[in-house]
Amino acid sequence: EATASALLLRAGLALLAWPVYLLSFLGIWEPFCKKVFFPFFLEKISGAHEKKSKRYKQELFRNLPDFRGPSGELRLLEIGTGSGSNFQFYPAGCRVTCTDINPNFQEGLSRNMKKNQHLHYEQFLVAAGEDLRQVPSGSVDAVVCTLVLCSVQSVSSTLREVLRVLRPGGAFYFLEHVAAEHSSWTYFWQQVCYPTWKLVFAGCCLTRELWKNLEEAKFSELKIQHISVALPWMPIEPHIVGYGVK
């Protein structure tokens, strides 16, 4: 629970961000955020995040080819593709299905598709992680999700969908920011920023303990590593990275 001082600072932050709260109340902020602000901001921040997380992603995706299906092809589904910053890490010939709840990333997406012509792009689905009904059960070899589980409506429903669309023996890859150690300053600031951050950044929750959701999901094998990806002035330093096998 947030302490009294965290609550006081939280109120102060909300006061500073009152124009956003007002626009949200008037129903203007959400569509603007979805169409303009979030894609723009995400592109800016993902550049910085990419530099810091690149070595972790290279390491993470290194064994992707091991999960090729019986046909020798690797069918990969990405949840929350955004502008496609993960494409560079996928092996040549990989068949990629992109999904995102927000269809407003076209510019960055087509730029990254042009840059990464070693992949086959199958389709782009506008879909939430909790509802991948357009994807048949057991039809993909790998599912990838980076910096997305912080903002899905329900983490457990998303992981249920992941397990449904994966074939037996397929793998789910993740890299996500998570709640800090409860006794730390980072966690204190996560508590302070929480409501305003969630409003400004399209539903992003700072204090999710996602490793617990992953441990509760029914993976036959799960590898999780706690790492630190520090960005200046951002309360999202603690991350988890790893993969689970169905």
From TrEMBL:
InterPro entries: Methyltransf_11, SAM-dependent_MTases_sf, Thiol_S-MT. One of its GO terms (molecular function) is S-adenosylmethionine-dependent methyltransferase activity. Residues 77-174 form the Methyltransferase type domain. CDD domains: AdoMet_MTases. Pfam families: Methyltransf_11. Keywords: Membrane, Transmembrane, Transmembrane helix. The chain crosses the membrane at residues 7-29. This is MET7A protein. The lineage of its organism: Eukaryota, Metazoa, Chordata, Craniata, Vertebrata. The gene is Mettl7a.
